[in-house]
Amino acid sequence: MKEKYIYKRGNCYYFHFKIPPALGKGRIFKSLHTSDMKKAKNIRDTYLSPILSQLSAIDILEKISELISKSRNEADAGMNAIRKGTFGIDSSLKACAGRYIEFIGNSTIRKSTCREYVYIINKIVSILDSKKNVNSMSKSDAITLRDKLIDNTSSSRLSSYFIVFRMFLKWLVEEGVANQYVLDNTRITIPTVKTEKTPVIPLEKVDECMSCHPNWTLVPRIARYTGMRLREILRLKKHNIVRHQDILCIKVDERSKTGEPRIIPVADKLKDYLKDITEIEKTKKQFDHFNTLVKKIPGCEKCKFHSWRVYANTNMMEAGVDQAVRMKILGHRASKSDIHIGYTSVQISQMKKAVDLIP
Q1: Helix or strand run (H / E) with residue 30
Q2: Whether 191 contacts 156, CB under 8 Å
Q3: Can you tell me the distance from the alpha carbon of 303 to that of 305, in angstroms, rounded to the nearest whole number?
Q4: 93-185: which CATH number, 3.10.129.10, 1.10.600.10, 1.10.150.130, 1.20.120.350?
């Protein structure tokens, strides 16, 4: 660099440097406090080296930025090519929804589920701008969708709408049609589902509820005297009727909600009907409509099949049956705070007396 940026005034050398615009502009004029050229060069280099290093780093960053920008443009161009190859030029919300509906129509999901998805997707498209490009979907669009649905949709229904909506967006991302940020930006807070307490079937209506359909009397009868869940009853076969300690019982397998098998004694009022247990297989698919029929009975407008569990538990409680015995019959797990229940041994004979108390 020889004597560059070094100037002599009188007997002393000075360092004079114009700061580049990249570092903020300005000038450095500094006395080097020496009249020896060699020492002056060494002192100058201690000032200049950090400045030149910063300039070099800035040049490198600018080149990296150019490469990133170039790569991003090439990636966007490649993605656009994929989108055009997959969907054609039209990547509007309506066109993408049509493709997704076609995709689920050819999938292996149940027809009823497919119809539900189609309805929800069409509903979403009708609320949002159908011409909107899927990659311009934002959080504000998701909030708009939520606010327009919230007035006339239950919390649980609203949640299912957004589950399907995000499944649709996720599929678009996987297909290379939408960017990941579309999926990330549409993640918003949904109102929590407030579940109502399941009502008990009124005592004066139990016989009517049990026979709301003439071919379905066995399943609700089992639920009435055992408190079993619907899915547990619908899986019952002849080999599930067993004798335990010389007491006729129903054996519930490990596919129950708690994942644990359990034994439920058969109430005397139920014994004579278990010979027809094979009838359950013939009517199991029809029980999707039980809740609809039972709600038509006056006084049972909010009842459902789960109300039989509430009925069994309530009547045993009112008859003075200990909580540990009731939980054993119903298949409820004791919480950490229920120390008494956790250390209570329940005998099959106690359970038999309990189910016989159910009216």
Answers
A1: strand 27-31
A2: no
A3: 7
A4: 1.10.150.130
